[in-house]
Amino acid sequence: VLPGLPAEESLLDSSPIIMGSPEGRFHFAIDRGGTFTDVFAQCPGGHVRVLKLLSEDPANYADAPTEGIRRILEQEGGMPLPRDRPLDTSRIASIRMGTTVATNALLERRGERVALLVTRGFRDLLHVG
């Protein structure tokens, strides 16, 4: 129990996540890679949609994860959702997103050179094995 929180109030929501739950909302899981972005959607009613987009396609969209969500919501809702308008997120229950872009840059030794400065006594703050 943390100070300021009632004893019966948990820091984490322990209620189970029911995919395709009856509330009629979408659950998205997205992996944005250097070349492709994969979008997985658990849709209301329990069916699954999977979509693969180019991670960079400025002639067609500004952001691949947003575009993937827009396309699935558009197809599932049967109504056009213009790219230049904000998405209505009221039917989205969750979005989980991961990326391999930074990890790949480190592994391939690409990217900008950086330096880390720390004050005395904190030399072990960052340990890269």
Task: Explain how this protein is built.
The chain has helices at residues 64-77, 101-107; strands at 26-32, 36-42, 48-54, 92-99. It is of the alpha+beta class. A four-stranded mixed sheet has the order 3-2-1-4. Strand 1 and strand 2 form a beta hairpin. The protein starts with 25 loop residues before the first strand and ends in a 22-residue tail after the last helix. The model is unreliable at 5-20 (pLDDT under 50). One of its GO terms (biological process) is glutathione metabolic process.
The gist of it:
The chain is α+β, with helices and mostly antiparallel strands and 129 residues long. It has helices spanning 64-77, 101-107; strands at 26-32, 36-42, 48-54, 92-99. It has a domain at 26-105: Nucleotidyltransferase, domain 5 (2-Layer Sandwich), CATH 3.30.420.
Relevant terms:
129 residues; 5-oxoprolinase; 2 helices; four-stranded mixed β-sheet; alpha+beta; 4 strands; Nucleotidyltransferase, domain 5; 16% helix; 5-oxoprolinase (ATP-hydrolyzing) activity; Oxoprolinase-like; Hydant_A_N
